Amino acid sequence: MEVEKEKFKKMFPNLYKEMFEDRVIPTLFDHLEVCENDQQAIEIINFFEKVGEISKEYAKYLREHVEDLRPLFGTRKRGDYARRGLI
Question: Are 53 and 28 spatial neighbours (Cβ–Cβ below 8 Å)?
């Protein structure tokens, strides 16, 4: 597999860089920036907990303090991830 990856990198250096090096995976807070209200934020927190990206304790803490996250809401538009280098 690693040999194929190196071959791909030699054949398509710019595409390789775009696919594997330049981008960052959006975090929980990147997703919360798209929220419009507390309910959407709680849904995102629940999802991140379900897939194992955050611990149950951290998810519980965030749900209990969702009002502290409100300043993040609406600071990013949907589809704005690509413009900020996120995938």
Answer: yes
**13-39 burial code (b ≥16 CB/10 A, e <16):** eeebeeeeeeeeeeebebbbbbbeeee
According to DSSP, residue 66 is labeled G
pLDDT tens track for 55-84: 999 999 999 999 999 998 988 776 665 555
Phi-psi region of 79 (alpha: psi -120 to 50; beta: other; left: phi over 0): left
Measured between alpha carbons, how far is 20 from 18 in angstroms, rounded to an integer?
A: 6
The pTM assigned to this predicted structure is: 0.66
DSSP letter, residue 74: T
pLDDT digits (tens, 9 = 90+) for 15-27: 777 777 766 677 8
Residue 35 CA to residue 17 CA, distance in Å, equals 31
- Between CA 41 and CA 66 the distance in angstroms is 7
